[in-house]
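=== RUN LOG ===
request id: a7f3
mode: sequence -> structure
chains: 1
length: 184
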Amino acid sequence: MIDIPVEDFVFVVCTLVGGGLLLVTVLVDDVLGAVFDFDVGGVSLMPLLLSFVSMFGVGGLFATRVLDVHGGQAAAWGGGFGIVGLLIAYFIFSALRRAEAPAPFSTSDLVGHDAYVQVGIPAGRYGSVLVKAEGQTHEFSATAGTDIPAGTVTRVTGVGGTGLIVESKAPPAAETAQEGGTDA
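=== RESULT ===
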C-alpha cells in the first residue's frame, strides 16, 4: 500500500486542483467570467485565487520534500509561495487586460452624428446612409419620417434595430423658397 503523509496529500491536491482550474479559467474565461463577475484592479478574482491555491500546494510540497519541514512551517512556506503566485498572476493578467482593444462602438453611439444619404430614403421605408465613426466610413440602413433624396446630409436621431433613424439637417426645399421670396 502507498503511504503518503496527509500534509503532502493536501499540498498535491491543492496543486492539481488549483492548477487545473486555473488552466480552465484561462482557456474559457468568458464563460466563467460571466458567472463570477468580480475583479480586483481590472483582474478577475478567480485566476488570483486559483494561482494562490496552486502555488500554496507547490510551496508546501517544496517545504516538505526539499527543506524537510512539516506542519505549520510547511504551511507558511506554502502561503509564501501562494502570495508570490498571486502577485505574478495579478501582474500578468493586468498586463493582458491593458493590452486588450477597446470595445467597438455600437449603433447607439452614432446618435447625433452626421450621415450622408447614399441611397434615397422614402418616408417610412429604408435607404442607405454612410456615417464616419472611429476613423472609418460605415454603411447602415436608415429610415426617416420624410422622403430624403440621395446626396443629402442628415443627422442620426435614433436607432431602430440594426438600422438608423435619420432626419434631414436642412429644411425642405419648398419651404426655403417661400421664406426667401422672389421678386417676379
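=== NOTES ===
The two ends are 114 Å apart (CA to CA).
Strands lie at 39-40, 43-44, 114-119, 126-133, 136-143, 153-160, 163-168.
=== END ===
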